[in-house]
Amino acid sequence: MGVSRIASEVAVFARSTYFQYVALFQWASVRGYVAYKILLPVDQMLFFVELGAYATGPENAAYFALGNALQLTANAGIFGVIATVANERHFGTLPILLGSPANRLVTFMSRAVVNVLDGIVTVIIGFAIAIGLFGLDLHHANIPLLALCVVVVSLSTAGLGLMFGSIGLVMRDAIIVANVIYYVMLVLCGVNFPVSRLPGAVQLISYSLPLTRGVEAAREAVAGASFGQVAGLLGGELLVGLAWALAGYALFATLEGWARRGGMQEAY
Amino acid sequence: MRSLVRAAFSSLRLTLRTRVVSGWMYLNWLVFPLIFAAAGLFVLSTPGGSSSRLVYGVLGGGLIGYWSVAYIDGGNGIQDERWQGTLEQVFATPTPLWVIILGKVAGAILFGLLSFVPTAALGYFGFHAVLPQLDPSRFVISLGVLTFTFFCIAITLTPLFALWRWAFSMVNGFEIAVYVLCGFMFPVAILAPWAQGVAGVLAPTWAVRALYASTMAEGPHDLVAWWLVAVGLSLLYLCGAYFLYALVERRARVSGQLAWA
Fold this sequence. Notes:
The complex is a heterodimer. By secondary structure, chain A is mostly helical. Chain A has helices spanning 2-24, 30-56, 61-71, 73-90, 94-99, 104-110, 113-134, 143-168, 174-188, 200-207, 212-222, 227-262.
């Protein structure tokens, strides 16, 4: 009984992942993917690398390239996941989803899978650009550890995306919020300058966001650090992402309760 | 003529009103430029750097917000019509399309100008950045020329968004590249020579150069020449726009497939 139930939940998870990819993955066209997943990342890196080189000297270009390459995970983790959750309302499929007997936690978490994978692909593109165009040197890097950092950061940013995706269920302009969150991370998460330069209170916000510790760990990995030296940072990064995802699920469940009681699946 | 002015004004008024329907829309022109200004100011104020660079953070965030609202939102006006199912009605009215677009873009530009308010406030209160070398008259003329260049680009790009819905995605993908090529937050002179060549055919590059020169004492100050180049290039864009609008009209009326484009 236990095994068949787990198998059933895994099947729901797999189906939900597949359907959210075919129905809700918003970059599933060649032009859309090129525009938003290749052109925009290249532009963003170019902008901040040139800005950083102008402000601090060309020798620091790789610092900005690495930070921005990692921040690209938020492209999938924030924009992708928010759209995947919030678009159920826009497409009119939310009442059907809420009417299904499927496990809510399983269907909710499945929203992140494709976007996490996509986030990893985006960072690989970002690293290729950083190495090819901006001279990011990985000769001394601990590559397996750097790869682990990328996976962890992709997971944690998707956690934040799940939270704001749930908020998107009750507001019409979720994409604007996604835009703001994505770009706020450029300032708060140590992507372009150390978090220590921010005011004390703002640093608290920085460390409650995904990416901050992940970027720090990745910089250490590029410098050749071992797993033991960054394990704390990566553990913290995972915990932050999990906390945001669970908060998002709790909000989703609360909103579902309200909607069921009031019959307002599409009205709130 | 009076009816055209009235139609353009109605389009402008409608654009302004739809922009304030949702409080979240304010984030576009208020918070977005603020975020870029903050990122720019933190990077540009790195210890050991020249304080004169801060002007790029103060004005750069505003320029980014201004550009984003002017061309993205101006152009997106046509996409909105398509999504709301009103694109055919817009084309079926006796008012020429360019008049309606003119009103939309003017509305977007008015909102875009507001982007300078939060970024200047952040620069002043957050980083004590001031513009002691500011030449007000040259600054105002440069801003006027810049507005004209944004206006012409938005007018020119909009028919592309009407013709092909994917055009918006592609142009959107180049949005941040424009920040780089037009020198919104650092001088174009630091770019590779080939990139400077591309930047030279973009009208805002010259207007932005004049704008920054009007706030600094050092460096070349050929403002009149830069204004003329910016205006000349913008007029060239408008010549291209004439043919694009004719193409859109033909596509809309002959094939009747505009909403499917």
